[in-house]
Amino acid sequence: MKDTNQYIRSTSAMRRLVLHGLLGAALGLGAAAPAAAADYPEKNIRFVIPFGAGGGSDVLARTIGGVIKDLNLTPVDFIYENLPGSSGARGYRDVARRQGDAYQLATVSVSFFTTPLLGGAPFKLEDFTPVSAIAMSPYVLVVRPDSKIQKLEDLKEQERLTTGSVGVVSDARLLADMMSEEMKVRVDVVPFDGEGEIITGVLGGHIDFMWGNLGEILPQIEAGTMRAIAVSTGERLAALSDVPSFKEKGYDVEHVMLRGVVMPKGVPDDVVKYWEGVFEKVAASDLWRERYLDRFKEQPRYEGAEQFAKSLKQTRDDYAAILKKLDLLK
Protein backbone atom coordinates (compact mmCIF):
# COMPACT_ATOMS: atom_id res chain seq x y z
CA MET A 1 0.00 0.00 0.00
CA LYS A 2 2.83 2.32 0.95
CA ASP A 3 4.55 1.68 -2.39
CA THR A 4 1.30 2.27 -4.23
CA ASN A 5 0.72 5.63 -2.53
CA GLN A 6 4.31 6.68 -3.24
CA TYR A 7 3.87 5.74 -6.89
CA ILE A 8 0.65 7.79 -7.07
CA ARG A 9 2.36 10.81 -5.49
CA SER A 10 5.34 10.52 -7.84
CA THR A 11 3.09 10.20 -10.87
CA SER A 12 1.02 13.23 -9.83
CA ALA A 13 4.16 15.29 -9.33
CA MET A 14 5.43 14.29 -12.75
CA ARG A 15 2.11 15.25 -14.34
CA ARG A 16 2.30 18.65 -12.66
CA LEU A 17 5.81 19.21 -13.99
CA VAL A 18 4.81 18.21 -17.50
CA LEU A 19 1.70 20.39 -17.36
CA HIS A 20 3.73 23.33 -16.09
CA GLY A 21 6.22 22.87 -18.91
CA LEU A 22 3.48 22.72 -21.54
CA LEU A 23 1.79 25.83 -20.18
CA GLY A 24 5.11 27.67 -20.08
CA ALA A 25 5.81 26.79 -23.69
CA ALA A 26 2.30 27.80 -24.75
CA LEU A 27 2.65 31.18 -23.06
CA GLY A 28 6.13 31.75 -24.46
CA LEU A 29 7.78 31.68 -20.99
CA GLY A 30 11.40 30.82 -20.31
CA ALA A 31 14.42 30.35 -22.55
CA ALA A 32 12.88 27.31 -24.18
CA ALA A 33 10.12 29.32 -25.88
CA PRO A 34 9.83 28.42 -29.58
CA ALA A 35 10.23 32.03 -30.71
CA ALA A 36 13.65 32.23 -29.11
CA ALA A 37 14.90 28.88 -30.39
CA ALA A 38 18.12 28.61 -32.36
CA ASP A 39 16.23 27.54 -35.47
CA TYR A 40 14.07 30.69 -35.57
CA PRO A 41 12.34 31.50 -37.84
CA GLU A 42 10.50 28.26 -38.51
CA LYS A 43 7.52 29.64 -40.44
CA ASN A 44 6.63 32.54 -42.71
CA ILE A 45 6.58 36.08 -41.32
CA ARG A 46 3.40 38.16 -41.42
CA PHE A 47 4.23 41.71 -42.53
CA VAL A 48 1.34 44.01 -41.60
CA ILE A 49 0.89 47.20 -43.62
CA PRO A 50 -1.60 49.51 -41.82
CA PHE A 51 -2.54 51.24 -45.08
CA GLY A 52 -3.76 50.40 -48.56
CA ALA A 53 -1.81 48.90 -51.44
CA GLY A 54 0.48 51.21 -53.39
CA GLY A 55 1.16 53.74 -50.62
CA GLY A 56 4.47 54.58 -48.98
CA SER A 57 4.17 51.97 -46.22
CA ASP A 58 3.17 49.31 -48.73
CA VAL A 59 6.12 50.05 -51.00
CA LEU A 60 8.49 50.08 -48.01
CA ALA A 61 7.38 46.71 -46.65
CA ARG A 62 7.36 44.92 -49.99
CA THR A 63 10.73 46.35 -51.00
CA ILE A 64 12.27 45.26 -47.70
CA GLY A 65 10.84 41.77 -48.14
CA GLY A 66 11.98 41.55 -51.75
CA VAL A 67 15.56 42.53 -50.90
CA ILE A 68 15.67 40.06 -48.00
CA LYS A 69 14.44 37.27 -50.25
CA ASP A 70 16.84 38.05 -53.10
CA LEU A 71 19.79 38.24 -50.70
CA ASN A 72 18.70 34.97 -49.02
CA LEU A 73 18.85 36.56 -45.57
CA THR A 74 16.06 34.42 -44.10
CA PRO A 75 14.91 30.84 -44.75
CA VAL A 76 11.23 31.82 -44.80
CA ASP A 77 8.94 34.06 -46.85
CA PHE A 78 6.87 37.13 -45.99
CA ILE A 79 3.08 37.20 -46.07
CA TYR A 80 2.04 40.82 -46.70
CA GLU A 81 -1.29 41.93 -45.28
CA ASN A 82 -2.75 45.36 -45.92
CA LEU A 83 -5.06 46.43 -43.09
CA PRO A 84 -6.15 49.99 -43.91
CA GLY A 85 -8.63 51.89 -41.78
CA SER A 86 -8.93 54.61 -39.13
CA SER A 87 -5.63 56.31 -40.01
CA GLY A 88 -3.63 53.15 -39.43
CA ALA A 89 -5.39 52.21 -36.19
CA ARG A 90 -6.79 48.94 -37.53
CA GLY A 91 -3.42 47.55 -38.59
CA TYR A 92 -1.46 48.75 -35.56
CA ARG A 93 -4.11 47.44 -33.18
CA ASP A 94 -3.94 44.03 -34.84
CA VAL A 95 -0.17 43.84 -34.30
CA ALA A 96 -0.29 45.26 -30.75
CA ARG A 97 -2.73 42.61 -29.54
CA ARG A 98 -0.39 39.79 -30.65
CA GLN A 99 1.92 40.29 -27.68
CA GLY A 100 5.02 38.11 -27.75
CA ASP A 101 4.37 36.87 -31.30
CA ALA A 102 7.76 36.76 -33.02
CA TYR A 103 6.21 36.27 -36.46
CA GLN A 104 4.65 39.75 -36.80
CA LEU A 105 6.26 42.84 -38.36
CA ALA A 106 4.79 46.26 -39.13
CA THR A 107 6.00 49.49 -40.70
CA VAL A 108 6.01 52.84 -38.88
CA SER A 109 4.19 55.96 -40.11
CA VAL A 110 3.10 59.36 -38.78
CA SER A 111 -0.22 57.93 -37.55
CA PHE A 112 1.74 55.40 -35.46
CA PHE A 113 2.31 58.38 -33.15
CA THR A 114 -0.60 60.75 -33.72
CA THR A 115 -3.57 58.34 -33.69
CA PRO A 116 -2.99 57.05 -30.12
CA LEU A 117 -2.09 60.53 -28.88
CA LEU A 118 -5.44 61.82 -30.12
CA GLY A 119 -7.23 58.96 -28.38
CA GLY A 120 -8.30 57.38 -31.65
CA ALA A 121 -6.83 53.92 -31.06
CA PRO A 122 -6.50 51.34 -28.26
CA PHE A 123 -2.73 51.08 -28.60
CA LYS A 124 0.34 53.12 -27.69
CA LEU A 125 4.05 53.17 -28.43
CA GLU A 126 4.79 50.91 -25.47
CA ASP A 127 2.69 48.12 -27.04
CA PHE A 128 5.43 47.55 -29.64
CA THR A 129 9.02 46.37 -29.79
CA PRO A 130 11.24 48.71 -31.85
CA VAL A 131 13.46 46.69 -34.19
CA SER A 132 15.24 48.90 -36.72
CA ALA A 133 15.10 52.11 -38.70
CA ILE A 134 16.22 51.48 -42.25
CA ALA A 135 15.91 54.81 -44.11
CA MET A 136 14.71 58.35 -43.66
CA SER A 137 12.64 60.82 -45.62
CA PRO A 138 14.08 64.34 -45.45
CA TYR A 139 11.99 67.42 -46.10
CA VAL A 140 12.73 70.39 -48.32
CA LEU A 141 11.35 73.89 -47.79
CA VAL A 142 10.37 75.29 -51.18
CA VAL A 143 8.83 78.49 -52.53
CA ARG A 144 7.59 79.55 -55.95
CA PRO A 145 10.31 80.84 -58.30
CA ASP A 146 9.30 84.52 -58.03
CA SER A 147 8.98 84.52 -54.24
CA LYS A 148 10.55 87.37 -52.29
CA ILE A 149 12.18 84.67 -50.17
CA GLN A 150 15.48 84.10 -51.97
CA LYS A 151 17.52 82.48 -49.21
CA LEU A 152 17.06 80.94 -45.79
CA GLU A 153 17.88 84.15 -43.92
CA ASP A 154 14.99 85.92 -45.69
CA LEU A 155 12.51 83.79 -43.72
CA LYS A 156 13.50 85.57 -40.52
CA GLU A 157 12.88 88.98 -42.05
CA GLN A 158 9.18 88.33 -42.72
CA GLU A 159 6.53 89.61 -40.32
CA ARG A 160 4.24 86.71 -41.10
CA LEU A 161 4.47 83.53 -43.19
CA THR A 162 1.89 80.99 -44.30
CA THR A 163 2.41 77.33 -45.13
CA GLY A 164 0.35 74.18 -45.64
CA SER A 165 -0.13 70.87 -43.87
CA VAL A 166 -2.02 67.72 -44.80
CA GLY A 167 -4.47 67.66 -41.92
CA VAL A 168 -4.01 69.42 -38.60
CA VAL A 169 -1.01 67.38 -37.38
CA SER A 170 1.84 66.41 -39.69
CA ASP A 171 5.59 66.60 -40.13
CA ALA A 172 5.08 69.84 -42.06
CA ARG A 173 3.25 71.29 -39.06
CA LEU A 174 6.00 70.13 -36.72
CA LEU A 175 8.71 71.74 -38.86
CA ALA A 176 6.71 74.96 -39.18
CA ASP A 177 6.44 75.21 -35.40
CA MET A 178 10.17 74.52 -34.97
CA MET A 179 10.99 77.19 -37.54
CA SER A 180 8.65 79.71 -35.95
CA GLU A 181 10.20 79.23 -32.52
CA GLU A 182 13.82 79.26 -33.69
CA MET A 183 13.54 82.18 -36.11
CA LYS A 184 11.07 84.22 -34.03
CA VAL A 185 8.70 84.63 -36.95
CA ARG A 186 4.97 84.03 -37.08
CA VAL A 187 4.05 81.04 -39.24
CA ASP A 188 0.37 80.31 -39.88
CA VAL A 189 -0.33 76.71 -40.92
CA VAL A 190 -3.28 76.08 -43.24
CA PRO A 191 -4.67 72.50 -43.31
CA PHE A 192 -5.18 70.91 -46.75
CA ASP A 193 -6.56 67.55 -47.87
CA GLY A 194 -3.49 66.49 -49.84
CA GLU A 195 0.02 67.35 -51.02
CA GLY A 196 -1.28 68.27 -54.48
CA GLU A 197 -3.45 71.01 -53.01
CA ILE A 198 -0.51 72.40 -51.04
CA ILE A 199 1.65 72.55 -54.18
CA THR A 200 -1.18 74.37 -55.95
CA GLY A 201 -1.41 76.75 -52.98
CA VAL A 202 2.28 77.64 -53.26
CA LEU A 203 2.25 78.02 -57.04
CA GLY A 204 -0.89 80.14 -56.88
CA GLY A 205 0.57 82.45 -54.26
CA HIS A 206 -2.00 81.49 -51.61
CA ILE A 207 0.68 80.32 -49.16
CA ASP A 208 4.33 81.38 -48.93
CA PHE A 209 6.09 78.04 -48.74
CA MET A 210 5.71 74.32 -48.13
CA TRP A 211 7.68 71.42 -46.73
CA GLY A 212 7.79 68.44 -49.10
CA ASN A 213 9.46 65.02 -49.15
CA LEU A 214 12.50 65.05 -51.40
CA GLY A 215 11.06 62.34 -53.64
CA GLU A 216 7.82 64.27 -54.10
CA ILE A 217 9.26 67.75 -54.52
CA LEU A 218 12.48 67.13 -56.47
CA PRO A 219 10.70 66.93 -59.86
CA GLN A 220 9.19 70.37 -59.17
CA ILE A 221 12.64 71.76 -58.34
CA GLU A 222 14.24 70.21 -61.41
CA ALA A 223 11.44 71.57 -63.61
CA GLY A 224 11.96 75.08 -62.22
CA THR A 225 8.43 75.37 -60.85
CA MET A 226 9.71 75.38 -57.24
CA ARG A 227 12.84 76.77 -55.65
CA ALA A 228 14.52 75.04 -52.69
CA ILE A 229 15.44 77.23 -49.70
CA ALA A 230 16.52 74.78 -46.98
CA VAL A 231 16.48 71.11 -45.93
CA SER A 232 15.33 69.53 -42.68
CA THR A 233 18.39 67.33 -42.18
CA GLY A 234 21.42 68.20 -40.08
CA GLU A 235 23.63 68.28 -43.16
CA ARG A 236 23.08 69.08 -46.81
CA LEU A 237 21.62 66.46 -49.13
CA ALA A 238 23.68 65.04 -51.99
CA ALA A 239 20.78 65.61 -54.37
CA LEU A 240 20.61 69.31 -53.36
CA SER A 241 24.20 70.09 -52.49
CA ASP A 242 23.72 73.83 -52.97
CA VAL A 243 20.79 74.02 -50.53
CA PRO A 244 21.72 74.66 -46.86
CA SER A 245 20.26 73.06 -43.76
CA PHE A 246 18.82 75.07 -40.88
CA LYS A 247 21.38 73.48 -38.56
CA GLU A 248 24.38 74.77 -40.49
CA LYS A 249 22.92 78.28 -40.24
CA GLY A 250 22.60 77.99 -36.48
CA TYR A 251 18.88 77.17 -36.20
CA ASP A 252 17.78 74.07 -34.29
CA VAL A 253 15.34 72.89 -36.93
CA GLU A 254 15.89 69.23 -37.78
CA HIS A 255 13.32 66.53 -38.40
CA VAL A 256 12.96 63.59 -40.79
CA MET A 257 10.45 60.81 -41.17
CA LEU A 258 12.15 57.60 -40.07
CA ARG A 259 11.26 54.52 -42.10
CA GLY A 260 11.41 51.55 -39.77
CA VAL A 261 9.93 48.32 -38.49
CA VAL A 262 8.38 47.26 -35.18
CA MET A 263 7.12 44.01 -33.66
CA PRO A 264 4.61 43.35 -30.87
CA LYS A 265 5.56 43.91 -27.24
CA GLY A 266 7.18 40.98 -25.46
CA VAL A 267 9.19 39.56 -28.34
CA PRO A 268 12.36 37.77 -27.08
CA ASP A 269 15.60 39.74 -27.22
CA ASP A 270 17.34 37.22 -29.47
CA VAL A 271 14.54 37.56 -32.03
CA VAL A 272 15.07 41.34 -32.04
CA LYS A 273 18.81 40.74 -32.50
CA TYR A 274 18.06 38.42 -35.39
CA TRP A 275 16.03 41.05 -37.25
CA GLU A 276 18.51 43.80 -36.39
CA GLY A 277 21.15 41.79 -38.22
CA VAL A 278 18.88 41.18 -41.19
CA PHE A 279 17.87 44.83 -41.58
CA GLU A 280 21.45 46.02 -41.14
CA LYS A 281 22.47 43.83 -44.09
CA VAL A 282 19.53 45.14 -46.12
CA ALA A 283 20.47 48.75 -45.36
CA ALA A 284 24.08 48.15 -46.47
CA SER A 285 23.17 46.36 -49.70
CA ASP A 286 23.36 47.67 -53.26
CA LEU A 287 19.90 46.20 -53.90
CA TRP A 288 18.36 48.39 -51.19
CA ARG A 289 20.03 51.48 -52.56
CA GLU A 290 18.93 50.68 -56.10
CA ARG A 291 15.36 49.60 -55.36
CA TYR A 292 14.46 52.06 -52.61
CA LEU A 293 16.90 54.85 -51.77
CA ASP A 294 17.74 55.89 -55.32
CA ARG A 295 14.32 55.15 -56.75
CA PHE A 296 12.34 57.14 -54.15
CA LYS A 297 15.03 59.70 -53.27
CA GLU A 298 15.18 58.52 -49.68
CA GLN A 299 18.29 58.79 -47.50
CA PRO A 300 20.21 55.95 -45.81
CA ARG A 301 19.76 55.71 -42.06
CA TYR A 302 20.07 52.45 -40.18
CA GLU A 303 19.36 52.38 -36.45
CA GLY A 304 19.40 49.32 -34.23
CA ALA A 305 16.67 48.58 -31.71
CA GLU A 306 18.10 50.64 -28.84
CA GLN A 307 18.65 53.83 -30.83
CA PHE A 308 15.42 53.36 -32.80
CA ALA A 309 13.50 53.15 -29.52
CA LYS A 310 14.96 56.52 -28.48
CA SER A 311 14.09 58.05 -31.86
CA LEU A 312 10.49 56.79 -31.65
CA LYS A 313 10.02 58.25 -28.17
CA GLN A 314 11.46 61.60 -29.23
CA THR A 315 9.16 61.73 -32.24
CA ARG A 316 6.15 60.86 -30.08
CA ASP A 317 7.08 63.63 -27.65
CA ASP A 318 7.48 66.13 -30.50
CA TYR A 319 4.00 65.34 -31.81
CA ALA A 320 2.55 65.53 -28.29
CA ALA A 321 3.99 69.04 -27.94
CA ILE A 322 2.25 70.13 -31.14
CA LEU A 323 -1.08 68.67 -30.03
CA LYS A 324 -0.84 70.44 -26.68
CA LYS A 325 -0.08 73.70 -28.44
CA LEU A 326 -3.21 73.22 -30.56
CA ASP A 327 -5.26 72.36 -27.44
CA LEU A 328 -5.91 68.91 -28.87
CA LEU A 329 -4.06 67.17 -26.06
CA LYS A 330 -4.25 68.01 -22.38
From TrEMBL:
It comes from the Bacteria. SUPFAM superfamilies: Periplasmic binding protein-like II (SSF53850). Residues 1-37 form the signal peptide. CDD domains: PBP2_Bug_TTT (cd07012). Transmembrane segments: none annotated. PANTHER family: BLR1237 PROTEIN, TRICARBOXYLATE-BINDING PROTEIN. This is Putative tricarboxylic transport membrane protein. It comes from Paracandidimonas soli.
